[in-house]
Amino acid sequence: MSSTPLAPAWLVEPADANALPASVWSRNARRSAVGELEIAGVSASALVAEFGTPVYVVDEADARGRARGIRESFDREFARVGSSAKVYYAGKAFLCTEVARWVTEAGLNIDVASGGEMAVALAAGVDPARLGLHGNNKSLSEIDRAVGAGVGAIVIDSVVEIERVATAASRHGRTQPVRLRINSGVHASTHEYLATAREDQKFGIPLADAAAAVALIRAQPSLAFLGLHSHIGSQIFESDGFAEAAHRLFALHAELLKDGPVPELNLGGGFGIAYTSVDDPLDIDEIARRFADIVSQGAAQLGIPVPIVAIEPGRAVIGPSTTTLYTVGTIKDVLVSVVEPVETTATRKYVSVDGGMSDNIRPALYAANYSARLANRTSTASPALVRVAGKHCESGDILVHADYLPGDVEPGDLLAIPATGAYGWAMASNYNYLTRPPVVAVLDGAARLIVRGETEADLLSRDVGVTP
Ligand SMILES: Cc1ncc(COP(=O)(O)O)c(C=O)c1O
After folding, report:
1. Could you tell me if 450 and 96 are in contact, meaning their C-beta atoms sit under 8 angstroms apart?
2. CATH of the domain spanning 81-313, picked from 3.10.28.10, 3.30.70.2750, 3.40.50.720, 3.20.20.10
3. What are the 10-residue block averages of pLDDT along the chain, 468 residues in total?
4. Catalytic one among 1, 393, 457, 464?
5. Residue with the nearest Cα to atom 1 of ligand 1?
6. How far is the CA of 44 from the centre of ligand 1 (A)?
7. Does the annotation count 393 as an active-site position?
8. Alpha-carbon Rg of the chain, whole angstroms?
C-alpha cells in the first residue's frame, strides 16, 4: 500500500527503488560495484560522457537474442505440428540498417510499412525476397519500387490495390506474391478483445468481402496468392484474441483451398512486453506453443493441412533491448488536490529531464506507462512517488506517469527509462526544434553509434529561408 493518494492503484512501491527488475530491463543491464547502471558492461556515465543525453542505448545481444529466440520457438513449435513458421520483424517498431542486419542474421524477414522503411532495409543489403510490404494507402510509386526490387510479399489492403499491384507486376515482368489483409472484427487490447466494434477502422477488407477479393487476385496472372493476413492489435498479453482471429480466418482459408493453393496464414504481430514490474506478458515459448496448437487444431477440425504461419512481431524483438538515458534538470514538488477516497492534498514530485514527448510520444499518445531509475548512482533515501516530465511546451509532456525514485533525486542525476526500443525513436519528432537523440549499441563492454543524433545544423538545413 502506498503512502501517497497520488499513486495509481496498479503501482507497487518497491522495497528498493534502485532495483532493476529483470522482466523490464534488458538482459545485460545491472548495477556496477559502485551502484551505477551498466548495460553490456558500459556504464551510464561513460555513455553520457561520449554521447550526451538524451541517448537511446540498445543492448545488442539482447535484441539479437530475442529475435533469434522468437524464430527458434516458432520453428520448433510449428515443426511439432508438421508445418513451419516465417517470422517477420515489424520494422515500424525501430529500423536502421544495423538492426535490419541483426534481425536478418537471426533468421527473420522484415515487414516494412512504407517506401522509406523499404529503402532502409534495402540499404542494409537485405535480400528483397525477405521483405513484406504493408500499408493501407501505398502510393503507386511505393508499389512500383517494391515490385521492381523483388519484395517477397505485398500485403494487399484494399480491393483497388489488386489491380495496382498486378499492373506493376506485369510492367516488371514479374509474378508478385501477395497476401490479403482481413479486418476480422477482432481487436485485442492488453486484457480484452472486443468482438464487434472494431470493424470501424481503416485496415484490411471485411471478412465478408474477402472471397470475392481473392477471386480477383487469382484472376490476375501477374499475382500469386499466398494467403490471408490479420493483425489484431498491439501490446497483447493473452492468446485469446489471436485464437479468435485465427478461428474467423480459418473457415475462409479452408473455403479458398477448394479453388487453389493457400500456402500461408499470417497472424500479424502485437506480442506484449513489460514496461513496468507489474506487466506480465506471456513468454515467447508459450506464445509459440499456443499458436501452434490453435492453428493445428483449427486445421484438424476443418480437415485441411496445417498452413505455414507467418507472424510480425516488432515490439517483442526490440522494445526490451533499449534504455533511454536523460539528465535531470529541474525538480518541483507540486501540491495537488485529491478528492478520493477523501478530500485532501498531496505533493507530487515532478522530475524534468532533457528530452520528452519528442523522443517518446507513447505516454502522451496512449497513456502508456513506463518506469524509471537513477542511472548514475544508487541511494538509500526513502522512495518518493515521482512523475517524470520532459522539456516540451505541453503539460501532457510526460515520460513516466508514476514511479518511485529515491527521494534525494537531484538536478544533474542521470535517469534511465527502460523498454524504450519500440515506437520511441521510430515515432520521434523535432517538436520545439529539439534534435532527435543518437542511438548507441552496446556489446561486450563497448559502445558504438548506430544512428547519429541530429544537430541544430540538421534542423536548419531544410529551411530554405536560412542564409548561409
Ligand atoms: C500489420 C502489423 N504487423 C505487425 C505490427 C507490429 O506490432 P508489434 O510491434 O506490437 O508486435 C503492427 C503494428 O502496428 C502492424 O500494424
Report:
1. yes
2. 3.20.20.10
3. 82 95 98 98 98 98 98 98 98 98 98 98 98 97 98 98 98 98 77 50 91 98 97 85 89 96 95 95 95 95 96 98 98 93 92 98 96 98 97 97 98 98 98 98 98 97 90
4. 393
5. 231
6. 31
7. yes
8. 24
